[in-house]
Design a protein that fits this description.
alpha/beta
Length: 407
């Protein structure tokens, strides 16, 4: 069986570029039928947008733009095609209301799964949360496209989970890497055997030490880069030399704060144009940083490669698969009048994301109360540490991501 999902993955870069930009004018015409896109693209003649230079002249669209439009005109703010057939409705962190259409594999996950070694007929434990965010359904759509059997496991009680997974014997794990490590540890402690031999992980960092720890136990780990707005943007292959941009997307890397593409190799913000009849996105700025890797992958795939996630262009960051915003930290501060200043620090501890809120002003002993507010606001647990105000640098930073950037 071929290592490649289809022939598009190995086509010449020139052929891919021609195909994408021949199709781009029609995407713009479709988008302009939605009120918000008509306004954003006012005065744009779609027929003239047929090159990267022409695309770079269009305005960026950010999540905050969609949030503002949805507040004024709920539920979708005019960014979804008015005649679209909608299969599911989700809430993306922000919050932003997201629509899923009836297209096959609407989040383009099958390609990443195939590159991870997943093949038709395999049984897969999907441990992303089956709730109002689309993470679980992003991977499930690709698994269905591959005709896999899906265990809608979600992330829950690890003791119950390992008993069930030991009985059902899935060979593939999908979820965040930390939880896979927890399941393997729990199974070993309980004397149970799990049948995982491969994993596609996303939603959290994959440090080299955690990957090595998991792979020593016979599970080959591959990662992909996905968002709740765009689906799978890029994925790792067997070569493990960067992430390969998903077919059917146009990626640009721009200088943060502008829409201007950077030179090859320069770190910049990821901007994606998504071809979708239901939820088209044109020059959607993700807020994530990366850099372009030159040349094709040794695995034979010829699309653009990126170094992977290299931080945020803003201070919004992802912890255990969930975004945390400076606005959320402001809510915590507002609920505790004694806090003069605060900074959320995100680190790695025991192979997992960990966060601590440094606060200046409150009296000793109030840490548990503040920690409860932090969990209520962010849906994540974190420690609270009271520090002198002089210990918090005067640099305007509310969230400090101190996790190492792994290649």
């Amino acid at each position: 069986m071929s290592e490649h999902y289809d022939a598009y993955e190995t086509q010449s870069p020139a052929a891919r570029e021609a195909h994408l930009f021949d199709a781009l004018p029609e995407l713009l015409r479709q988008a302009q039928r939605a009120p918000a896109w008509a306004k954003a693209l006012e005065g744009v003649d779609p027929n003239t947008v047929n090159s990267r230079t022409a695309l770079a002249a269009l305005p960026l669209t950010r999540k905050t733009d969609i949030m503002a439009a949805q507040t004024k005109t709920p539920p979708f703010g005019g960014f979804v095609a008015q005649d679209a057939a909608i299969k599911r409705l989700f809430i993306s962190p922000g919050p932003v209301f997201v629509a899923e259409g009836y297209e096959d594999d609407p989040w383009s996950a099958a390609r990443a799964l195939y590159a991870a070694g997943v093949r038709p007929g395999e049984t897969v434990a999907n441990t992303f949360g089956y709730h109002m965010t689309p993470g679980a359904f992003i991977l499930e759509s690709g698994l269905h496209a591959l005709k896999c059997r899906v265990i809608a496991a979600g992330a829950g009680n690890s003791a119950d989970a390992v008993t069930t997974l030991s009985a059902l014997a899935p060979t593939v794990y999908c979820g965040v890497p930390d939880y896979l490590n927890i399941l393997l540890d729990k199974a070993a402690a309980e004397g149970l055997s799990l049948s995982f031999n491969k994993a596609l992980v996303s939603g959290a960092a994959l440090p080299l030490d955690l990957r090595a720890r998991i792979e020593k136990r016979g599970v080959r780990v591959t990662q992909c880069y996905a968002t709740a707005d765009l689906g799978v943007i890029a994925y790792e292959s067997s070569a493990r030399e960067g992430l390969i941009v998903n077919e059917g997307l146009i990626m640009e890397i721009v200088r943060p704060g502008t829409g201007t593409p950077v030179a090859e190799g320069e770190v910049g913000e990821i901007v994606v144009t998504r071809f979708s009849k239901t939820t088209p996105l044109i020059r959607f700025a993700t807020g994530d940083l990366t850099a372009h890797l030159s040349g094709p992958s040794p695995c034979g795939r010829t699309n653009m490669r990126i170094k992977g996630w290299m931080g945020r262009a803003d201070q919004r960051t992802k912890v255990k698969g969930m975004f945390v915003d400076p606005q959320q930290i402001a809510k915590v501060v507002a609920q505790h009048g004694a806090i003069a200043r605060a900074r959320l620090v995100v680190r790695r501890a025991d192979h997992a994301d960990a966060m601590v809120l440094l606060v200046a002003g409150p009296a000793p002993g109030t840490e548990p109360e503040i920690a409860a507010t932090l969990k209520s606001v962010t849906n994540l647990s974190g420690a609270v540490e009271i520090v002198p105000e002089s210990a918090l640098p005067n640099d305007g930073k509310v969230i400090a991501d101190e996790r190492p950037v792994e290649g």
